C-alpha cells in the first residue's frame, strides 16, 4: 500500500515552520500522541517509520504539503539534511541536487570550480552532470577563475547554484 497524504495527516502533524513531525494519535507505547517523530539515520537525515515502512522526513514533508510524492529528489537548500522546514526543501532532479553541494573538503584552494595548474595558473571548470565537464578558462588569479565558475554556475544551475 502506498502512503497517501490523508493517511499521513491522520496519524501525524507536520509543522512547516519547524520542519518537525509529531504523532496525532497513539499507535504504540513508542508512538504516543504529541511526541516528536523520527530519528537520525547516521548521516543527518531524519527517518520516520510508519506502517512498517521507513521514510525520509523531507519526502514526507513534501507529501504532507502538496498531496503528492516528489517527482525525483528533495533538496535541502541550506545543505542541512535534518532541516526539514518547508522553506528549506524543494523538489529537485538528480542534477540539481548535485549542483547544490558544498565545497569538497580536499579542495586546497577553498574555491569551488578552481584548481591550480603546475605553471601557477588557475583553471576553472564546471561539471555539467555525469562525466561531462566544461573548461571555463585559465587565469593568472584564483579569484578570477572562481568568478568565472560562479557566473557559469548561476547561468547553468540557477537557484541551485552554490558558490562555496
From TrEMBL:
- Entry's Pfam families? HNH_3
Q: Which UniProt keywords apply?
A: Endonuclease, Hydrolase, Nuclease
Please give the start and end residues of each transmembrane region.
Answer: none
Superkingdom of source: Bacteria
Q: Where is the HNH nuclease domain?
A: 55-98
Q: Is the Cell membrane keyword given for this protein?
A: no
Instruction: List the GO molecular function terms.
Output: endonuclease activity
Return the InterPro entries for the record: AP2/ERF_dom_sf (IPR036955), DNA-bd_dom_sf (IPR016177), His-Me_finger_sf (IPR044925), HNH_nuc (IPR003615)
Tell me what this protein is called: HNH endonuclease
Biological source species: Mesorhizobium retamae
Amino acid at each position: 500500500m502506498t502512503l497517501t497524504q490523508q493517511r499521513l495527516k491522520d496519524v501525524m502533524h507536520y509543522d512547516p515552520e519547524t520542519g518537525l513531525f509529531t504523532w496525532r494519535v497513539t499507535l504504540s507505547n513508542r508512538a504516543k500522541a504529541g511526541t516528536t517523530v523520527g530519528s537520525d539515520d547516521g548521516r543527518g537525515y531524519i527517518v520516520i517509520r510508519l506502517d512498517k515502512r521507513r521514510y525520509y522526513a523531507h519526502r514526507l514533508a513534501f507529501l504532507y504539503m502538496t498531496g503528492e510524492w516528489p517527482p525525483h529528489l528533495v533538496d535541502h537548500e541550506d545543505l542541512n539534511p535534518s532541516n526539514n522546514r518547508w522553506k528549506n526543501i524543494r523538489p529537485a532532479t538528480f542534477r540539481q541536487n548535485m549542483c547544490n553541494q558544498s565545497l569538497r573538503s580536499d579542495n586546497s584552494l577553498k574555491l569551488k570550480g578552481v584548481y591550480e595548474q603546475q605553471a601557477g595558473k588557475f583553471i576553472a571548470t564546471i561539471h555539467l552532470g555525469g562525466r561531462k565537464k566544461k573548461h571555463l578558462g585559465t587565469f593568472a588569479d584564483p579569484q578570477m577563475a572562481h568568478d568565472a565558475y560562479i557566473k557559469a554556475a548561476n547561468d547553468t544551475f540557477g537557484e541551485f547554484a552554490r558558490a562555496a
